[in-house]
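Known limitations

Structure tokens in this collection are predictions and should be treated as such. Users comparing against experimental data should check residue numbering before alignment. To illustrate the layout, the record for Transporter is reproduced below. The input appears on top and the generated tokens appear beneath it.
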Amino acid sequence: MPTSVQTRPVVRLERPTTLQLVGLIVGALAFFLPFFIPIPGLSPEAQRMLSIFLLAIVFWVTEAIPLVATAGLVILLEVLTVSSTGLFPVGEGALGAKAYFAALADPVIILFLGGFLLADGAAKFGLDKNLAAVMLKPFQGSGRMTVLGLMSITAVLSMFMSNTATTATMFAVVIPILAVMTDAKARAGIALSIPVAANIGGMGTPVGTPPNAIALGALAANGIQISFLKWMMLAVPLMLVVLAIGWFVLVTFFIPKGTNIELALRSDFDRSAAARIYYVVAGLTVALWMTEPLHGINSNVVGFIPVAVLLATQVMTGDDLKMLQWPVLWLVSGGIALGVGVGATGLDKWLLGSVNWTAMSVTALVVVLAGLGLGMSNVISHSAAANLLIPLALGLGTSISLDIVQVGVIIALACSLGMSLPISTPPNAIAYATGEVSTKYMALVGVIVGVAGAVLLAFVMPWFWTTLGVL
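Generated tokens:
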């Protein structure tokens, strides 16, 4: 029987931008120089790891090649240059290639895989849009209350779906509202409320956004496991306060008192057998994540339950697996592998030993870490910023007896606060693409919300966590 062959579109290579060309040249120089210039205090494998680390910094900052490609390149270079089975001789105790390849199937990656499949199922069966319609009904009428409803629902969805998917879903609800509004500034406020809430909501759970997974993976490599519920106890209080700040900023600057917004909402839940199975599996998975202290099943293991069950019942298929955000999983894997290499070669101790960190107070260090996370995540991707900062920061915490859980969580959450530019995060880009939001308005809201969140992270949250006994 003749079979049809599915063809893919021909990929046309685009001319690199000036920034990408500069990144390629500088990245190559940064990679090769440590090979030829002896550096005091560094072992040969640590020098090679420094080359990989510098290359990753330059490529992730300039996007000389796609972010996911840099992640794959990091793993390959580690296997070839600093593993016990690589091309170059290494000292005793060096990790084998398996240790670096293992990052691709790290337990945190499995957790994210389960989260992605659940999110894809929510879109497949229309659960996301239907939930949004049901939850928005109490917020109709007052413009300011509508913004509160939009932000609350977006944040809740973003805790369990990717920020990008949540933003796209919510704009499907919001676009008809914007079409009938005559006040341009109010339209901008409504459009901005979605990415702001999506970025903030992602902080709330381990599966909400890649920086959270990167922090969990780095902490696990240091022998520290954080449960799904414990992460929520650490992050949700900050998430709620920053969400309230974001709402206050938006309604103050964009939504005049007395503004009324009518919502055309309709929910039609899928009642097919497949949808019902999905609802049960999704509900059970979330319940198991939330009750880990009661049953003791690790959240990473729980994350694989929906993958196995939904595929076995054919509720989700191989085609659905193809739709998952595999580049994000690879990007997180690259960050995990980078952290493994930096720690295994002793590069972290050398980098951190060049600064007298003990001369700084703990508060000052926390301020620096939160500031770095916020600053970098505004100009490069949140994942890239977390990949670069978290391994070094955990090494710093270990060397000067800081609580490395606090360090990892602070940087991960700070990276989610970078939202002042269209390039800062995909939700911002989606909002900007609607034509309703100017860069000036986005920067105004992003800077205020980001700085307020970073101040809370540096000065309030450590005290809050300690007082409640969470840390």
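For this record: The first helix runs from residue 18 to 36. DSSP finds 22 helices and two strands in the chain. Please report discrepancies through the issue tracker.
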